[in-house]
Write a structure and sequence with these properties.
This protein is of the alpha/beta class and about 600 residues long. The protein has two domains: about 270 residues, 3-Layer(aba) Sandwich (Rossmann fold); about 240 residues, TIM Barrel (Alpha-Beta Barrel). Strand 14, helix 19 and strand 15 form a beta-alpha-beta unit. Helix 17 runs parallel beside helix 18. The longest helix has about 40 residues. It is globular and about 90 Å long.
C-alpha cells in the first residue's frame, strides 16, 4: 500500500468513525429525551421526569431492598416511591432529589444509606447517567465533568456515553424488568442464612474519621433541599448481618455526629440487635430478604410515627439559617437585570425567576419608563410580585456617566440626571430602592468618590454594571466575583466558577449581572446557573434585601477588588477544557485535507 493510499484509508476511517459517532449520538439522544427507558433506567426516568409521590425513599441497594413503599402508604395515607438504586452514592441521590423536587415537593424524604457512604470517595454506578449528559440536568453535567479532563473529552463522544446503553436496551426488550412494580421496591429472595461474620471497627473512645468532602457536600445539599421544600428529612442506616461486638461502623458514628450537629432525624440500625444476628432475615450480609424487609419496614415505621411529629427543635432552628458548607459560611446571590428598557426583556427574566422560586432586581432606565406606559405598569406588577426596581439613571448617556474620567460640569449633569429619573419614577408609581451605575467601573479614585457621594445622598446602596457593589461613602466590592451573564459564557464555565466560589470559606454575596435586552444574553444559561446555585444551597435575594441582611449580620465590606471573569479567561478555559478534542479534530482535518489533495492530484494526472 502506497503512502497516498494509506493516508486516504486513514482519512476514510476517521471520517466514518466521526460520522457514526455523530449520527448514533443524535439517534440515542433523541431516544433518551423522548422515550420512557426500560429496566434499571425506568426508575431514573421516573425520578427525572414524572415522579410526584409525597414520600420519597432514596438510597442504594440497601434502601431499595429494605423499605417497602406500600407500608409507608398504609401508615401515613400518602403516596410513596422507593428510588433506591444498586451501588449508587450520595451524588446520585442528590441528582435524583434535585430533579424530583423541581416538579413536586414531597412531605417526607427518607435517606437509607450504608455506613461507609459518608467516608468512601467512590461514586459507584454514577456513570449510568452519562446518557443524560447535556439533556437539561445541570447537576448530572456537573458531576460527570468533575471526573477530570479525560472524562470531559470522552463525554463529547456518543460512542462513549452510550456504550453500555445499547445492549441494555436490546436486552430489556427481550426480557422486560419492571422496576416500578412495587413502588420501586425490589424484594430479595429467601435463601440459606449467610454466615454471621465478626467485624471490629470503631471502639469507644477512638477518634472519628473525617467525612469525604464531596459526600458531605452532597448530603448537606440534600438536607437543604428538604428544608426548602418543608419536607421531613430522615436518615437511616439499615441492618447488616455482622457481629460488631463492642464496636460500631465508623461511618455510623460519623453520620450520627453530622446529623446531631444539623438537627437531622437519624437512626442507626446497622448493628441493631433485633435484626443483625438473625440470619434468616438476610439475603447476604448487607441486604435483607423479603421477610426481613417486611419486618424491618414495620419496625422502622413505628419509630417514625412516635417521633414527636417528626420535627425536633434542633431541626426547626437549623432551617432558619442553614449553613452553606461545613465551616458555617453562607452564600447569597442577587440577580440584577441591567438596562431594563422593554416589557419583553423584563418578562423573560421574571418568568424564569418565578419558575425557580427566586426574585430579581430590575435596573430600569427612567427615559424608557417615561416613553412606555406599558413598561411602567409591568414593573409595578413585578414589585407587587416581590421583585425589586433599581434606578439606572434617566438617560444612560455616556456624555453624563463617563467612566474614562471627569468632564467639565459632570457633577451638575449627574444631579440633573438623578432629578429627572426620580421625577419619572415617582410619576409612574415606582420607588427604586437601589441604584445601578450606567457603564460603571469609573476610573480615578477621586472621580469615583465624587460620583458615589452624589448617588449616596439618594440611595443607601448602589451597584456598578459589572457586578460590583458600593456603599455611599466609599467603593467596596462585596461580591467574591463578577460575572456578566452572556451567551459567550459557556454554561459549564459558569457553573464551575460558581462551585469554586461556594467552596471558599467565609460569607459571600455574589452579584450576578444579566443583560436581557441585549443579543448576547442567554436565558438558558442564566436558568442553568440558578438551578445549579440552588442545588449547592445558595440563597437568592433581591439586591436591597441582601444588602440589609449583610448589615444585620455584621458583615464587613471587603476592600479586596473582586476578580473579573474576562474574555481572555473564557478563551483560556475553552483551550483548557477542550485541547485534546481540538487537537484530535485538527489531526482528522489534516488527514482529510491530505487525502483530498492526493485525490485531486491523481485526478489531474488522469486528465492529462
Amino acid at each position: 500500500m502506497t503512502a497516498k493510499r494509506f493516508f486516504l484509508y486513514l482519512a476514510s476511517v476517521a471520517a466514518l468513525v466521526a460520522a457514526t459517532d455523530v449520527l448514533s449520538g443524535l439517534a440515542m439522544s433523541r431516544y433518551v429525551s423522548t422515550c420512557n427507558l426500560p429496566g434499571d433506567y425506568m426508575k431514573i426516568t421516573h425520578m427525572l421526569r414524572s415522579g410526584n409521590e409525597d414520600i420519597l425513599i432514596l438510597g442504594s441497594s440497601v434502601g431499595m431492598n429494605s423499605l417497602i413503599p406500600s407500608e409507608f402508604s398504609n401508615k401515613f395515607g400518602l403516596t410513596c416511591f422507593n428510588a433506591g438504586a444498586n451501588d449508587q452514592s450520595m451524588e446520585f441521590h442528590e441528582v435524583m432529589l434535585s430533579a424530583f423536587i423541581k416538579r413536586h415537593k414531597p412531605k417526607m424524604v427518607v435517606l437509607a444509606l450504608r455506613p461507609h457512604d459518608i467516608l468512601n470517595k467512590s461514586r459507584g454506578r454514577f456513570g449510568m447517567l452519562r446518557i443524560f449528559y447535556k439533556c437539561g440536568y445541570p447537576l448530572i453535567d456537573r458531576f460527570l465533568e468533575d471526573g477530570g479532563a479525560w472524562e470531559r473529552l470522552f463525554l463529547k463522544s456518543a460512542l462513549y456515553r452510550f456504550n453500555t446503553f445499547g445492549w441494555r436496551l436490546l436486552l430489556y426488550h427481550f426480557k422486560s424488568k419492571n422496576e416500578l412494580a412495587d413502588g420501586g421496591f425490589v424484594a430479595k429472595p429467601v435463601v440459606a442464612p449467610p454466615e454471621y461474620t465478626k467485624i471490629a471497627e470503631l471502639a469507644q473512645g477512638d477518634p472519628l474519621p473525617k467525612p469525604n468532602a464531596e459526600k458531605l457536600a452532597s448530603f448537606e445539599s440534600i438536607a437543604s433541599m428538604c428544608r426548602s421544600a418543608g419536607a421531613r428529612f430522615t436518615v437511616v442506616l439499615t441492618p447488616y448481618h455482622f457481629d460488631y461486638g463492642e464496636t460500631r461502623p465508623a461511618g455510623a458514628a460519623v453520620f450520627e455526629k453530622i446529623c446531631r450537629e444539623r438537627g437531622i432525624e437519624f437512626y442507626d440500625d446497622a448493628g441493631n440487635p433485633e435484626f443483625s444476628p438473625r440470619g434468616e432475615l438476610f439475603f447476604d450480609n448487607f441486604h435483607l430478604n423479603k421477610n426481613g424487609a417486611a419486618l424491618y419496614t414495620k419496625y422502622f415505621l413505628e419509630r417514625l410515627s412516635s417521633y414527636e411529629s417528626g420535627r425536633p427543635d434542633a431541626t426547626v432552628g437549623a432551617a432558619e439559617e442553614p449553613p452553606a458548607c461545613e465551616s458555617g459560611s453562607k452564600t447569597i446571590i442577587s440577580i440584577i437585570d441591567d438596562d431594563t428598557a422593554s416589557v419583553s426583556a423584563v418578562k423573560c427574566v421574571r418568568e424564569m425567576a418565578e419558575r425557580n422560586g427566586v426574585r430579581a432586581t430590575f435596573a430600569a432606565i427612567a427615559k424608557s419608563v417615561e416613553k412606555n406606559p406599558e413598561l411602567a405598569e409591568y414593573l409595578r406588577d413585578c414589585v407587587a410580585a416581590g421583585h425589586e426596581i433599581a434606578s439606572h439613571s434617566y438617560s444612560h448617556w455616556d456624555s453624563v456617566w463617563n467612566r474614562a474620567g471627569p468632564r467639565d460640569g459632570f457633577a451638575d449633569a449627574m444631579e440633573k440626571e438623578m432629578d429627572l429619573a426620580d421625577a419619572v419614577f415617582a410619576t409612574s408609581g415606582l420607588k427604586p430602592t437601589a441604584f445601578v451605575y450606567p457603564f460603571g467601573n469609573f476610573k480615578g479614585e477621586d472621580y469615583r468618590r465624587q460620583i458615589f457621594e452624589i448617588v449616596g445622598r439618594r440611595f443607601p446602596i448602589a451597584f456598578d454594571s459589572r457586578g460590583g457593589v458600593t456603599t455611599p461613602d466609599d467603593y467596596h466590592p462585596l461580591c467574591i466575583g463578577r460575572f456578566p451573564m452572556r451567551s459567550h459564557n459557556h454554561r459549564f464555565m459558569v457553573e464551575r466558577w460558581l462551585r469554586e466560589a461556594t467552596r471558599k470559606d467565609g460569607d459571600k454575596w455574589i452579584v450576578l449581572m444579566t443583560h436581557s435586552g441585549k443579543d448576547d444574553f442567554s436565558l438558558a444559561d442564566l436558568e442553568s446557573f440558578v438551578k445549579c446555585a440552588k442545588s449547592l444551597g445558595c440563597e437568592f435575594m433581591t439586591a436591597s434585601a441582601a444588602a440589609e441582611m449583610w448589615r444585620k449580620r455584621g458583615w464587613e465590606p471587603s476592600t479586596r477588588p473582586a476578580s473579573e471573569y474576562s474574555r481572555v479567561a473564557e478563551v483560556a478555559d475553552l483551550v483548557r477544557f477542550h485541547w485534546l478534542y481540538i487537537l484530535g479534530m485538527a489531526l482528522c482535518g489534516i488527514i482529510a485535507l491530505g487525502a483530498v489533495i492526493l485525490i485531486l492530484r491523481r485526478l489531474k494526472r488522469h486528465s492529462k
